[in-house]
Design goal:
By secondary structure, this protein is of the alpha/beta class. Helix 3 crosses helix 4 and helix 9 packs across helix 10.
């Protein structure tokens, strides 16, 4: 059975707290694991969350501030120590190539795994697999930053009553899905369109076109809300979002499940972020992220 869930490894922004580790998020998408923004301490958080190095197929770094990338050194060395049997791809802003290389080779270790570097220099598609397309969009932050979006290909949902009415059953159902027509019955006669799931990961940024493009129509949006609304000017000055801004993005984009994260150490009560997000008009499912939380993607839309 396929599993699609977000494993939250850390939720702090620049400074960790007693209860919040630096950033780190693993998206389980069917048989793959995509690790986003491994900050300092990610390797230990993986252990606590039951995430193994073998679970990682792809690493996506939004930008090279320490709370989003200092864990790379340990994660990469652990992937090699554990002799992960598959290739691992790494995406990150091309302008930070020197930072990636420093982190990749921060200390001596034996390389046993093929790690493919695939830096991001512009908006566009980064990878296409059978189960998703990965793309990046430029964000607005003091250093070059990109957000990431996974889009599952649209499919078809079979209609049992229509199949029965046309005498399609057993192995012929699978054949119809593969070939598009069986005994004069077309796939579109006995099925309906099923939109693919969409997931977006948006970290440090002001409001910009990239934020809205990434969020559009998402089943799950993981987005920074570093500041509360009363500190909106601070957010703008430092290239961040507030809880209300993030919620309005989700509202306008038709997001089904909003996950708020990346909280400033100045706030002790994370639930205040939800109390500000709801009045902003977002009515979907809302999660204020906590370290080691597992958040399943919403069920497919009917």
């Amino acid at each position: 059975m396929s599993v699609r869930e977000l494993v939250v490894l850390g939720t702090a922004s620049q400074v960790p707290t007693r209860h919040r580790n630096h950033n780190g998020y693993l998206l389980r998408w069917d048989g793959e694991g995509i690790l986003f923004d491994p900050g300092e301490g990610t390797q230990r958080q993986m252990l606590r969350a039951g995430v193994a190095a073998h679970d990682i197929n792809r690493i996506c770094v939004t930008h090279f501030h320490g709370d989003h990338s200092l864990g790379l050194a340990g994660v990469i060395q652990r992937i090699n120590l554990d002799r992960v049997p598959h290739e691992v791809s790494a995406h990150y802003p091309a302008s930070g190539q020197r930072f990636f290389e420093r982190l990749r080779y921060a200390t001596a270790y034996r390389e046993t795994v093929r790690l493919t570097e695939a830096s991001v220099a512009a908006d566009g598609v980064l990878a296409e697999t059978a189960s998703y397309t990965l793309e990046a969009r430029r964000l607005s932050h003091p250093v070059e930053s990109y957000g990431y979006r996974l889009t599952e290909p649209d499919g078809r949902r079979m209609l049992p009553e229509a199949l029965a009415a046309r005498g399609i059953q057993g192995p012929d159902v699978g054949r119809l899905q593969r070939e598009g027509e069986v005994n004069g019955v077309r796939l579109e006669d006995v099925s309906e369109a099923r939109p693919g799931q969409r997931f977006a990961f948006v970290m440090d940024t002001r409001l910009c076109d990239g934020v809205h493009a990434l969020a559009d129509g998402c089943d799950m949006l993981v987005i920074e809300s570093t500041f509360l609304d009363e500190d909106e000017q601070l957010a703008t000055d430092h290239g961040h979002l507030t809880a209300g801004q993030a919620a309005r993005v989700a509202r306008d984009a038709g997001v089904r499940h909003l996950v708020l994260t990346h909280f400033s150490q100045r706030y002790n009560d994370a639930e205040e972020f939800e109390r500000q997000a709801r009045p902003a008009g977002f009515e979907g499912e809302l999660t204020v992220a906590k370290d080691l939380l597992r958040v399943p993607l919403p069920k497919r839309q009917q």
